[in-house]
Amino acid sequence: MVSKLGYVCIVAIKDSFSPNNNHKYLPNNKKGYKIDTCDWSEGYRNNFMDFPLTASTELVNSYDIYDYKSVAIFCREKFLEDKIKTLEKGFYYLNRENLGKLQVFLTQMEFSLIEIINDEIHMKDENKKKAEWVKNLVLKRNEYSQSSSYKKFTMRHHNKLSAMKWLIPRSFLIGLIFFPLVIMIAQAFGAEKGWLYPTSVYSALYFYTLWIAGYEDKDNQDEILGNEKSVIRHKLSYSHFF
Question: What is the pTM of this model?
C-alpha cells in the first residue's frame, strides 16, 4: 500500500527574483514558483537531501500533509496562474498576494484546520478562529520577509513606536502647564531643584509606557522571527486563547 504521508513543497526559481532576470515575459511584481511533492522518507528522514532541486531552484517552504499528492494537485488547479513559457517546466508565476494565499492554505492544511471535500474547502466552526489567526500570522511573516530594513524595524517595534507617537505630542502639551506648575509649587515649599519632580514623573511615565509596549513587541517579534511551525503549534495547543 502506498503511503499518503508526505510533503507539499513550494519551490522558487532563483532567476525570477533578480531585477535583471532573463524572463522578459515575467511581470516585475511576480516571481516564478512551482508546487512539488516528496514522500515522508525524502523529507523527514533525509532532511530533503534527496529532494529534486536544481542549481536554479530553491525550497521556499515544506508542509507535512496527509494525502499530500492530492493536495498538491488541488493547489495547482486552484492557486497557480497561467504558466510562463520562458520558465522551467512546471513553473508558474505568482504575485505576493497569491503566494500568501497559497502559504496560508497549506499551513492550515498542515495543522488540520481545513480539509478538502469534493474539490471544495471545508472548515469546522471550532476551527474558524484558529484558521483566521494562522492566516494573519502567515501573511505577516510573508510581508516581513519581503520588506525593506526600515519596514522590518517598524514591524518589530510597532507597539513602542505607536505608543511614543501617541504619548510624545500629548505629554508635551500637558507639560507646558504641568512643568511650570510643579516647579512653582516645589519652590514654594523650599525645594531647591524643583525641576526634578516633574522630570521624575515624566521619566517614570515614559519608562512604564515603553516597558508595556516592549513586552507586547516581544510577543510580536516571537511570532515574526520564531520558527513558524513551532509558533503555530504552541498557539494552537492553548485552545482557550481563541
Answer: 0.75
